[in-house]
Amino acid sequence: MDILIHNTSKFMKYSSKLLEEAVNAFGNLPGVGKKSALRMVLHLIQDKNLKSEKIVKALNELQAGLKKCQVCCNYSDEDICNICSDPHRKKDLVCVVESIRDVMAIEETQQYSGLYHVLGGVISPLEGIGPEDLNIDQLCERVRKKQIEELIMAISPSIEGETTIFYVSKKLEDMNVNISTIARGVSFGGELEYADEFTLGKSIMSRIPYSQSMNG
Fold first, then answer.
1. I need a surface site. Which of 64, 65, 131, 158 has the fewest CB within 10 A?
2. Are residues 97 and 168 in the same domain?
3. Which of the 8 DSSP states describes residue 82?
4. What is the DSSP pairing of strand 150-154 with strand 114-118?
5. Could you tell me the residue range of the domain that residue 49 belongs to?
6. Full-prediction pTM beyond 0.85?
């Protein structure tokens, strides 16, 4: 009997094909199961405040208007994002991150006032991701053309992350730029977006030269 109950959610019957397709679409979102998807869809259907119309409008505008910043590869409404164009940001300090989610996590700490560069991932041969698949050449060109004094490598401390940092440092070793890494407040194999704000902020503020971290 327990097995039958356990498996019923996999063979859920819908009275409407439209409802089923909506649930399946919501169920494709990260961390959303079929039951949660069904609750969300039913909530939107029964909502009197037209939330579904607002969501559809926002998604359509997002898809039509969202751009990638030509400088840092972050999401932007214009060719240059609000962070890169902010005159109060330190232009000679760039924090190199794996994903746009990491930018948001660091911004929440309110302890960093430089710029960013989003690589779009890390080097991972097992997943078929090489240096040419990331925004590494753009970073090197940026260092070459701009007066950047320091790169903070805020990459998740995993084997793939360490490989990426090593590769980037080798590409930049002939350029006049200091390379540092975040302090080990973030555990090895952890992801920056899941670190608490205090730990992440302290890791950035307590960064160390990359050469020193290798010797350690």
1. 64
2. yes
3. T
4. unpaired
5. 2-65
6. no
Residues of the chain where predicted confidence (pLDDT) is lower than 70: 1-12, 183-203, 205-206, 208, 211-216
Torsion sign, CA atoms 94, 108, 118, 168: positive
User: d(Cα 70, Cα 114) in Å, to the nearest integer?
Assistant: 17
Query: What are the strands, taking DSSP E only, across the chain?
Result: 67-68, 75-76, 90-97, 114-118, 150-154, 178-181, 208-209
- Inside any domain, residue 75: no
Contacts of 14 (CB under 8 A, 6+ apart): 20, 23
93 domain-assigned: yes
- Asked if 194 and 148 sit in the same domain, the reply is yes
Tell me the per-residue pLDDT of 122-152, one tens digit each, with 9 for 90 and over.
999 999 999 999 999 999 999 999 889 999 9
The pLDDT value recorded for residue 213 is 59
Which residue bears the tokens 């029964």? 46
- Assess whether 116 and 208 both reside in one domain: yes
Tell me if 96 is assigned to some domain: yes
